[in-house]
Amino acid sequence: MKLEIREQAPKYIEILAPIVAVLFSFILGSILILSIGENPIATYSKLLFGAFKSSYSVSEVVLKTTPLLLCGLAVMSALKVKFWNIGVEGQLCMGAWAAGGVALSLGHLPAVVLLPLLIFVGFVTGTLWGLIPTVLKVGLKVNEIITTLLMNYIAALWLNYHVYGSWKGRDGFPYTEVFSASASLPNLLGQRAHIGIFFGIIIAITFQFLFEYTKFGYKIRITGENPKAARYAGMNVGFITIVVMSLSGGIAGLAGMVEVTGIHHRLHPNILLGYGYTGIIIAWLSKNNPLAVILVSALFGILTVGGDIIQIHQIPSAIVKILQGLIFFSVLASDTVMRYRVKRENCFSEG
Description:
Radius of gyration: 22 Å
Order of helices and strands: EHHHHHHHHHHHHHE
CATH class of the largest domain: Mainly Alpha
Strand order of the largest sheet: 1-2
Number of helices: 13
CATH architecture of the largest domain: Orthogonal Bundle
Largest sheet: 2 strands, antiparallel
Structural class: mainly alpha
Number of domains: 2
Shape: globular
Number of strands: 2
């Protein structure tokens, strides 16, 4: 018996493989939960359904889903042209920094003027930060994984430089003054969730239309699947990569703007919570499908809020991170199942 590459996986395998992979990851998680003396069924019940027991919990799910959705879309769009944008965390940071600076400087402006300006500034700053490794990749063939990753640290230090320095609040602690009310995104139903979730949903739907039904979306798909064929067909692969990465960095910058104006209402060193790195997992699990990013982001949002709930019951919230990792590796394994099949070889010679 040997493994051979499938020309095309059957449709039922494409549907069942990720579902089985997720279920398998929960089974593995059950072993971990049993090892700490807890009931897996009760734990999963609190983890998955506890987030829907009150309007506040549902609001928190929407709140956590918002940055995950935007970061997942940022990574996904870059992957469409086979660009590994590991720098979403840094682009988010720079978008937050720029939006925060404008909010502090122009907080006297009315919301109808200031909020669109903050959206624009956050998006453009994320775009510019993302274009640095893109130009290095397109022009000098520098590995984008290294440059985007290292630029995350530069962005974080740049934010700290301002928060600990000239932007420090009057009370002397390392955070800025609170933004004015006009620099805050409107909340939903009186809870902490805000309208930022609609930014992600609109972008996901727009991407779905762009990638599936437009000429430029077709060029993006060809560039990602076969750059040599794209060049042979006369497509400007470098230009397409730059445009797509401009969108990717911009969406990440928008995520930063949404975070500081929707939740924190000020800049401080702890606004970076790893959403950019989680976005990589979300994009991969979504198979680069924009609409699937919405669903996977919601799942991760539920798990995040569920982690807070189980912690109240003296169960370590770190289980959520482990479970997310198990889901990621299980789905990676399911990809192998879809790409290969077992073929029997005839061990008996003729004659």
